[in-house]
Amino acid sequence: MKRFMLVFAAIFTLGLGFGAHASAEPENACYATCQELRSDCLDQNPNGFVLCARIYRACLADCDGV
Predict the structure, then answer these.
(1) Helices 2-15 and 49-64, interaxial angle, to 10°?
(2) Which of 3, 34, 53, 64 has the most crowded Cβ, counting Cβ within 10 A?
(3) Model confidence over 22-61: pLDDT tens digits?
């Protein structure tokens, strides 16, 4: 199960390209904050990847002004 979560996390991070999107933006402080929130969430909730992903996507949407 742990291996599945690691593979899923890798696919999510690399496959959706959020890292490239964040580095391409001139104001990436907001994206860096979102990444810190996600990391903190995963540290506090090791099995809460879905919850943390939702928080991360909502944060990115706020950065984009959507």
Answers:
(1) 10
(2) 34
(3) 455 546 788 899 999 999 999 998 888 899 999 999 998 9
As given in the structure block, the two tokens for residue 33 are 């904050």
> Whose structure tokens read 């909502």?
58
Please report the DSSP string for 1-66 in residue order. Answer: -HHHHHHHHHHHHHHS-HHHHHHHSS-THHHHHHHHHHHHHHHH-TT-HHHHHHHHHHHHHHHHT-
N- to C-terminal Cα separation, the chain = 35
Distance CA(26)–CA(7), nearest Å, equals 30
CB 34 within 8 A of CB 60: yes
